[in-house]
Amino acid sequence: MALDPNVLEQLIKESGLKPKTNAQSFIFNCPKCNKKDKLYIRRKDGRFVCWFCKEIENYQGRAEYALADLLGQSIGQIQSRLYGGNNIPVQVFLDLQLTDFFNDADDID
After folding, report:
1. What is the pLDDT of residue 2?
2. pLDDT tens digits, 27-63
3. Is 9 within 8 Å of 67 (Cβ atoms)?
4. Are 25 and 41 in contact (CB under 8 A)?
5. Mean pLDDT, to the nearest integer, of 91-100?
6. E strands, the chain, in order
7. How far apart are the C-alpha atoms of 85 and 74, rounded to whole Å?
8. Residue 61's beta-bridge partner residues?
9. Which residues contact 44 (CB under 8 A, 6 or more apart)?
10. How many Å apart are CA 81 and CA 8, to the nearest integer?
């Protein structure tokens, strides 16, 4: 289920948040690093990124995660408001960085 940009904008307005805006994004102070104007939530699909935290802890993703941090609410509450009812989209993302823990000295003939 895709995020409706109008629902996202309405949630932000109703929540009392006062973001800066540009043509593509809502711009907030990041709730994680407290850096001013570093958290961007894209208007068309709700993807967010903190340009500082992204490099440190990969803080980016779907809008509900940033909005939950900004509003001090649970992700489930935000998802209900964004997607309606209990119809919460489930997405699993696994990011692994596999390395060879054997070195050349461990090779067996």
Report:
1. 79
2. 999 999 999 999 999 999 999 999 999 999 999 999 9
3. no
4. yes
5. 66
6. 20-21, 25-28, 39-42, 48-50, 60-61
7. 15
8. 48
9. 5, 24
10. 9
